[in-house]
Amino acid sequence: MANQFEPQQTTLDDDLKMLSETLEEVLKSSGDKADEKYIEIKQRAEQALSDVQSRLSSSAESYCAKARNVAQQADTYVRDNPWHGVGVGATVGLILGLLLRR
Predict the structure, then answer these.
(1) Which residue did the predictor score with more confidence, 54 or 8?
(2) Where in or outside the cell (predicted)?
(3) Which of 29, 36, 64, 88 has its CA at a distance of 20 to 30 angstroms from the CA of residue 80?
């Protein structure tokens, strides 16, 4: 299951790296608002920021949809097999009780 998210994480890492490099260029520039290079770099930074934000919002929606799907599957499983749910709950409670006792 971890392999499923690695390509998205790599893309996100690349996007964030690109954004940070562009913003570093903005910070290192002369700061003269009339300078064409400054205006060009600022526009690139704004574009990179909007691109990353749109990708992050779509990724977040994807993660939420996957989480809802997993929760629905777990709910269905517990409803179909209630004694398994009771057993898992009792086991988790026992382990937590033993850990908290220490």
Answers:
(1) 54
(2) Cell inner membrane
(3) 64
